[in-house]
Fold this protein.
Amino acid sequence: MLRRNNLTMGIIMGFIAPIIGMFIYYLFKFYPLFTIRDFFTVLGTQKTLITGIVSVSLLANAAIFTIYINTRRDNTARGIFLSTCIYAIAALVLKYFL
């Protein structure tokens, strides 16, 4: 399944990887202090955290993007890049406009 060169698979992977990256960030930074619900509450009230969390989350996309580019699966890499751009724009909108 992961060996296919498919734009749709890249988009799906690109949307799932940052969620996993955010969960890993939560485990390393906030786990003993906050529950996952408290983490999202604090994230909603303190907009300064969004930048840090999004950067760490999108590192997961950068890692899988690099893997797919190096193995010459360009269509999947395009999907990952597309979802990365969507995540980045959504983070900017959350931080500055909401």
Observations:
- Residues 7-97 form one domain.
